[in-house]
From TrEMBL, chain A:
NCBIfam families: PRK04366.1. One of its GO terms (molecular function) is glycine binding. Residues 32-294 form the Glycine cleavage system P-protein N-terminal domain. This is Probable glycine dehydrogenase (decarboxylating) subunit 2. HAMAP family: GcvPB. The gene is gcvPB. The modification N6-(pyridoxal phosphate)lysine is found at residue 263. Residues 340-439 form the Glycine dehydrogenase C-terminal domain. The glycine cleavage system is composed of four proteins: P, T, L and H. In this organism, the P 'protein' is a heterodimer of two subunits. Belongs to the GcvP family. C-terminal subunit subfamily.
TrEMBL record, chain B:
This is Glycine cleavage system H protein. Residues 23-104 form the Lipoyl-binding domain. SUPFAM superfamilies: Single hybrid motif (SSF51230). PROSITE patterns: BIOTINYL_LIPOYL. CDD domains: GCS_H (cd06848). The gene is gcvH. It comes from Lacrimispora celerecrescens. It holds the Pfam family GCV_H.
Length: 474, 127
């Protein structure tokens, strides 16, 4: 039931005192003809309404959430404590600089820490999310080529295992996209890359480890091929959780990188956002960075980079998210950051090893922080698809892995357990996945019906996509 | 899985029906629509657009994913099947009637597969 369908005409949350000044209405033409459709409910009604909705929803606080390439890790509660401090929360972006020196120090410190982790020189916190970061990073690449009068570079190379946002961002920036196939081992096909690069190459977009959970062992060769052709290398930070504190994109040969603070650095993700997609770059791109950067002079000051591409978002991005990520980094420290990555990789390999005798793995391990199963054989033999297994998991109160991605793996399920899950949790999920496989072999029909114990059962996804009902009709 | 005897095919699962030397209809094969699942959205080029053999000219979206559709010939889009824009399910229902575009002024084409060769390819695909 929607909030609009609850309550009673005239019910409200406040009692207004009698008006003690003469009533003066706007002129006739400016008045609404019909009253607005507002929910007419008490505070108690609202509180219960949203509690009811929250009970039907599922988040990291409810249970296992192994959404591949999304890093749905636990968000420590101390992040919320620091983000709620009045000095961070009760400020305005137009306040004079000398009154917000502490907040500027947070931005500067976060920049220094994250540049150290990525091997970059400077970083902007303007972009509000990952794809926004990609867009910003590509604008930097474009500004760089244009500043050199190198206008023939119109193409961005993207491997076929990439996130769909990569080609989309490149297109938004006005580049055309060359998709190159992956090699047998799941990495970039060096021969295909050599064929694809040339005088028209603006750059390469790469995720490493990639969406198959594999670290590309040819990474230095790959970035060199692109550099020698005159292009720049863009690092999609979606999978940084596998390598943070261990190896740096800057040392792999990347010139620009975006991070997802809401993935790797434990800030709210998905509907719980807002997100943050900071973009770091090496010196050669720093003069083009968007918005204002915090510089240290006598105290902190905001300065526009010399040849800035302009604003990509108002003010300084989602500042309180940076406060949360900074808290996370302070809590982990320089020992904790690589330790978290090691555990993420260990958890993924443990799950993979415990499942590979029943589920086919798209690529044999060891994997990094995630692994991809292919259910093509299961589907052929039993009719049970990746979708059916995913729906089956819901009945056990487990969020499914990423489905049907990466596109190069048929009937794909991509699982990323993250470092914050205990062995007991992993063992429980492994047992559930094994029992679902057993059900697929013995009684496949039940899985076509799943889920049956959830607030809503199997949805008609085709009808939802073809005839979406997007607004409430009064 | 149906393969029609009077069409030619591509490795990327498009079918081509030549009306004469320089005019052809292009669509998606039965095997392609089966593997994609129920389609919910189709993106077609515009009339008058140039196409290049082997390059993307349309895309189709199922509940699983968005997939590119490649144009097997170089020419000009003279007509698009507007019905598909509102009813993408026609591709699932009758893939060989649900043509995407009519291409005229064809100057170049990909290497096509005969119905037998295409059937062979799909068989290998399914293994």
């Amino acid at each position: 039931m929607l909030i609009f369908e609850k309550g009673q005409e005239g019910r409200m949350m406040t009692i207004l005192p009698e008006c003690d000044v003469p009533v003066s209405l706007p002129e006739e033409g400016s008045l609404r003809k019909k009253s607005m459709h507002l929910p007419q409910v008490s505070e108690n009604d609202i509180s219960r309404h949203y509690t009811e909705i929250a009970k039907k929803a599922y988040g990291v606080n409810d249970g296992f959430y192994p959404l591949g390439s999304c890093t749905m890790k636990y968000n420590p509660k101390i992040n919320e404590d620091t983000a709620a401090l009045p000095g961070f929360k009760q400020i305005h972006p137009l306040q004079p600089e000398h009154t917000v020196q502490g907040c500027m120090e947070v931005l500067k410190t976060a920049e220094q820490y994250l540049c150290e982790i990525t091997g970059m020189s400077r970083m902007t916190f303007q972009p509000a999310a990952g794809a926004h970061g990609e867009f910003t990073g590509l604008l930097l690449i474009k500004a760089y080529h244009e500043s050199r009068g190198d206008n023939k570079r119109t193409k961005i190379i993207v491997p076929d295992s990439a996130h769909g946002t990569n080609p989309a961002s490149a297109t938004m920036v006005g580049y055309s996209v060359i998709s190159i196939p992956s090699a047998e081992d799941g990495g970039v096909d060096l021969e295909e890359l050599k064929k694809a690069v040339g005088e028209d190459t603006a750059g390469l977009m790469l995720t490493n480890p990639n969406t198959l959970g594999l670290f590309d062992r040819n990474i230095l060769e790959i970035t060199k091929i692109v550099h020698e052709a005159g292009g720049l290398n863009y690092y999609d930070g979606a999978n940084l959780n596998a390598v943070m504190g261990m190896i740096r994109p800057g040392d792999m040969g990347f010139d620009v990188v975006h991070l997802n603070l809401h993935k790797t650095f434990s800030t709210p993700h998905g509907g719980g956002g807002p997100g943050s997609g900071p973009v770091g770059c090496k010196d050669l791109l720093a003069e083009f960075l968007p918005g204002s950067m915090v510089e240290e002079e006598e105290g902190y000051v905001f300065k526009h980079p010399a040849h800035t591409i302009g604003q990509v978002k108002s003010f300084y991005g989602n500042f309180l998210i940076v406060v949360r990520a900074m808290t996370y980094l302070f809590m982990l420290g320089k020992e904790g950051v690589p330790e978290a990555s090691k555990h993420a990789v260990l958890n993924a390999n443990y799950m993979m090893a415990q499942l590979k005798d029943v589920y086919d793995m798209a690529y044999q391990g060891p994997c990094m922080h995630e692994f991809v199963m292919s259910l093509a054989r299961l589907k052929k033999e039993t009719g049970v698809s990746a979708m059916d297994i995913a729906k089956g998991l819901l009945d056990y109160g487990i969020h499914p892995p990423t489905m049907y991605f990466p596109l190069i793996v048929p009937e794909a399920l991509m699982a990323e357990p993250t470092e914050t899950e205990s062995k007991e949790t992993l063992d429980k999920v492994i047992a559930v996945l094994r029992s679902l496989h057993e059900t697929a072999m013995t009684n496949p029909e039940t899985l076509h019906q799943a889920p049956i114990h959830t607030p809503v059962t199997r949805l008609d996804e085709v009808r939802a996509a073809r005839n979406p009902k997007l607004k409430h009709e009064f | 899985m149906k393969v029609l005897g009077d069409l030619v095919y591509t490795k990327t699962h498009e079918w081509v029906r030549f009306e004469d030397e320089t005019t052809a209809l292009v669509g998606l094969t039965d095997h392609a629509q089966q593997s994609l699942g129920e389609l919910v959205f189709v993106n077609l080029p515009e009339e008058g657009d140039d196409t290049t053999a082997g390059e993307v000219f349309a895309d189709v979206e199922s509940v699983k994913a968005v997939s590119d559709v490649y144009c097997p010939v170089t020419g000009v889009v003279s007509e698009i099947n507007e019905e598909l824009l509102d009813s993408p399910e026609k591709i699932n229902e009758a893939p060989y009637e649900a043509w995407f575009v009519k291409i005229t002024d064809i100057t170049d084409k990909e290497e096509f597969l005969s119905p037998e060769e295409y059937e062979e390819l799909v068989k290998k695909d399914m293994e």
